[in-house]
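Dear Dr. H.,

I hope your travels went smoothly. While you were away I took the liberty of generating a structure for the chain from your last submission, since the lab meeting agenda had it listed for discussion. I wanted you to have the full record in hand beforehand rather than looking at slides cold. The sequence, exactly as received, is reproduced here:
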Amino acid sequence: MSVSMNVGTGGTRTIYAAERRARLGVRHRLAGGARAGSAEEVADALVALHGTDPASVFLAVGARLTGRNGPVAAVERALYEERSLVRMHGMRHTLFVFPSALAPAVQASTTDPAAVRERAVLLKHLAAGSTFGGEWLAETERLVLAELAVRGEATGADLGTAVPVLRSTYVYGPGTRQEGVQSVASRVLRVLDMEGRIVRGRPQGTWTSSRFRWAAAAPHPPWDPAEARAELIRRWLGACGPATEADLKWWTGWKVTDVRQALAAVGALPVTLEEGTGFVLADDLGPVPEPEPWAALLPALDPTPMGWQARDWYLDPEHRAALYDRSGNIGPTVWWNGRIVGGWAQRPDGGIVHRLLEDVGAEAERAIGAEAERLAGWVGDVRVTPRFRTPLERELAGPA
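The corresponding predicted structure, in token form, is as follows:
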């Protein structure tokens, strides 16, 4: 069964919300028959997994895998042993997990320009609040990289012990209300990370920990920035198209001129959406298979609800206040057939609880309950608290 095609005025293909939701269920590996067999398949299908909250990576993969086994071993193997997935800064200066093959395009299109700004800001702060300069910073970085070459992996504390200058401090914002003493360690490591010279390795503690070890990174092969932007747009439209220009600008964090050039480079075609003009790849105008009814429990910052700026086609605006924090970060969500219909949380005793924000019927309630049971089964004794708490998640989780 397929969603029917619609042609608007002037022959432009019209894609309504129902068809977009069908695409989402299949291409984001959420519908039952579309689920993936590996963490790499999930990351490849979604292009990027939000990595700001380490637990979200595992929860996002787990929601899309076949069977009832959890994703922890598979994700850890991909990230820390095979390096088929890599955690790095990407769009909007945010941490993501990408397929390693895509990392060079992300670095050239998005991370490199941000890294240039990050280094310039650090040098400016050091000049204003210390006696350190460019030569000092370069030598400190050389010592850090040399230590990692010997150790393989090391925590920030380990590096501070081995490279004492890394524990140096400077005055941030001298003469302002923000004035304070800061360590250079986190800033130096951040610059090296954004430049693709070091990478986060296995964390201390469980898979929910953000206390990562550091390792030297394999150098990215050079890409022309314009070609890299085109590759990233091509991959993203394949996963998330159709999308508006505003969606693409928001997701990438690029200038609108860069978005338009990348759309032209991949030969994207305009389509009519309910919110205006969208774009798809030239070979993506045909009908899509309509999946069987499906349910999913997705984590905070999951790439699906965070994939588009305009979200009314899968989220009732009346639910926003309960599901987002004040900065626009989405919390854990319950999905039915391509729409967000509620939220979920884990209580201190480990129980997975959810609340529906609209009537979805008995079939949906059973399917949602089965997904909650599957999630609880593999999470086990681990406690997951989103880094960015939202009103409904706080209420469901109850007192700590």
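Two observations you may find useful: Residues 103-129 form the longest helix (27 residues). Residues 1-5 have pLDDT under 50 and may be disordered.

With kind regards,
E. W.
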